[in-house]
Amino acid sequence: MSSDLRDSLDRPLRDLRISVTDRCNFRCTYCMPAELFGERYAFLPRDEILSFEEIERLVALMAPMGVRKVRITGGEPLLRHGLHELVRSLAAIRGVEDIALTTNGTLLERMAGQLKREGLSRLTISLDSLDPEVFSRMNGGKLSVQRVLDGISAAEEAGFEAMKINCVVQRGVNDHTLAALARHFKGTGHIVRFIEFMDVGTKNNWDLEQVLPATEIAALIDAEMPVESAEPNYVGEVAQRLRYRDGEGEIGIISSVSNPFCGECSRARLTTDGKLVTCLFAQGGSDLRALLRSGASDDEVRERIRGIWAGRSDRYSEERSELLGTDRPKRVEMYQIGG
Ligand code: SF4
Q1: CA nearest 185: which of 204, 160, 162?
Q2: pTM
Q3: Ligand 1-lining residues (CB < 6 angstroms)
């Protein structure tokens, strides 16, 4: 089976993001606000989430179609018991070149070493501010900045390098603390990536007024630590690269709102309950779990996936301005696909 599977806009399938749990120990306002996800919130029961075997089967079917990079997300993926076993089995799949994980870092101190040994290649840590008050306001006040920094130190000791530090930027919330975050990681080899606040899902009260565009973020950093733009590392790289003029590393900016990048989007997403989603802003996904559990053959599953991707035409971020204000009641939620 050739690997040049392309969608209707001639984009290959290269990246698969897999949400292994919808649960999280944070309550970030832009993803899982505490007022909606309280103590009694009913997360997916165990038998409704994909098993490791089902995930492994799907990745093994999608690798020959072009999937090279797998990113493990959540919710908070480190809450999923035995995650290192999934990393081990995914690392053994032919064609998968890179396994990355996005985490809030609070459980890394305990798990970084084992994940590294089992084949995890890269880590991305979400950290919206070093200011304890701002941090707490943005993530529901569950755990401390120090806990995240300790997780990053443990990951360094385990051998992880050039980690990505993802910071969701909200005007009037954490924009006054961005330079401090950049300065903290400057010269460490880790790359802070500032993410424009996005209208993902239906729960984050998104407002264009709260979006600080990439140009303003860059100016904020440049004013204190001069930067210059750098070439992308590869086609389809999500973040714009800005390197420090003094040679002490770089930052990135993900500008889905002010400067969309749908043209080279090669990302598919698998929800916790097994739906294949073709865009971060999709209104739903195709149920692969039912197919897997119906006893379908590999050929049947493969054909279904090929059909979904070949028919893909998503480019929401490019269409956003026309769609804003139109009725889009249903959307896949951030915590179901992990960004
Ligand atoms: S909006 Fe959708 S199509 Fe565009 S880059 Fe994001 S995930 Fe890809």
Answers
A1: 162
A2: 0.95
A3: 256, 261-262, 265, 267, 279-281, 314-317
Distance 254 CA to ligand 1 centre (A): 12
Number of the ligand 1 atom closest to the C-alpha atom of 238:
5
Residue 316 Cα: closest atom of ligand 1: 1
Atom of ligand 1 nearest to the CA of 317: 1
- Where are the chain's structural domains? 15-337
Nearest residue to 147 via CA among 78, 80, 93: 78
What string of pLDDT tens digits covers the 339 residues of the chain?
A: 445 799 999 999 999 999 999 999 999 999 999 999 988 899 999 999 999 999 999 999 999 999 999 999 999 999 999 999 999 999 999 999 999 999 999 999 999 999 999 999 999 999 999 999 999 999 988 789 999 999 999 999 999 999 999 999 999 999 999 999 999 999 999 999 999 999 999 899 899 999 999 999 999 999 999 999 999 998 888 999 999 999 999 999 999 999 999 999 999 999 999 999 999 999 999 999 999 999 999 999 999 999 999 999 999 999 998 877 776 668 899 999 987
Q: Which residues pair with 123 in a beta bridge?
A: 101
Task: Kindly state the tokens that stand for 166.
Answer: 């993802």
Ligand 1 centroid distance, CA of 104 (Å): 23
Which ligand 1 atom is the nearest neighbour of the CA of 280? Answer: 7
Q: What is the dihedral of CA 147, 152, 157, 158, to 10 degrees?
A: 110
Distance 112 CA to ligand 1 centre (A): 30
CATH superfamily of 15-337: Aldolase class I (3.20.20.70)
Provide the total of helices (H) and of strands (E) in the chain, helices listed first.
11, 12
